[in-house]
Every structure is written in structure tokens, then in C-alpha cells.
Specification:
The chain is mainly alpha-helical. The protein contains 7 helices and 4 strands; from the N terminus they run E-E-H-H-H-H-H-H-H-E-E.
Amino acid sequence: MPKTEKTARGLGKLAKKPTAAATKTTDAASARKALPRHSFETRQKALLIFKNGGSYKSCAKTLNIPIYTARDWHRSFLIGTFRAEHGARQQSYTPEQKAEVLRLRREEGKSYNAISQLTKVNRATVLQWIHKDNAERAEAARVQAGETAPVEFDVEDSGVMTPSAENNQQTPTA
């Protein structure tokens, strides 16, 4: 007998397994969220284009950004709410500060809290920089060693992780 799920109205509804298309949609959405937001330099260039009478289409093409982003920025510009500079509460750090944080962790083995106190960089930012650096170093070492891409896993309804079909192909060895 198929499983049923309760809906908001309390009526039973047959539970469906996610289809391949639904999984791809979820993967695409998470990939978009992982992309960095546009830099303030890009926003400043967009502001300059708008001030010189450029359209959002020309802005999108010039800056190589999605047309919908440029359209939203242009609309904000027209009503006077477009921000092309850092907010008052936004902190930006120099490349030297980031290099010092990474050096303190790698060479001196300092804790995240100690690094944060020494460099006056937010602890969450310290943690993020270190984790990103570690991932980049591991990837570089893996590529240098000539290993294949890591296997990605799909999580089934039962909570069991199985290798995804597209990334579980064996590479022939000579």
C-alpha cells in the first residue's frame, strides 16, 4: 500500500518519489544560491551606465549579468533606491588581512577565536576564509595527484546515501 502524506487540510495525498527532473531543479536552485552576489564594483559600473542614459539591456550585455538583475537595478535607480556602495554596517577586508588570517592558522595553528581577536576580523569570516582555503588546497592536491572527480551522492527517501548515476562511472585504467 502506498504511503500517504497529510496536507494542510488534513486530507491524505499519495506520497511521490522525487523525479529526476525535480532533483535537477533542486540542484540548479542550490547552485544558483551558491553563486556569489554581484560585487559593488559591478553595481557601480551599472550606476554609471544608468546615469549616462543606458538601458538595462545594454547594462546586462556590457557587464555580463542576467537581464533580470539589470532590469531590477534599473527600476531601483529610477525610483532612487539603487545602492552602489557598501552599507554602513558592511565590513570589507583587505587581501592582506585575509592573508594574515590564513597565515596565522596554517603556520602558527591559532584557534579561530584567537585569530579573530588578533586581526579584528569577525570570527565567522575567519572560519569561512579558512574552510574555503582548506577546500581549495585539497582540490589542488587532488588534481595534482591526478585523481578523478569525487563521487556525488543522492539521498533517498529512506535517508540512505547512494552514489548518483552520472558521477559513479568508473574510469578505465591502463
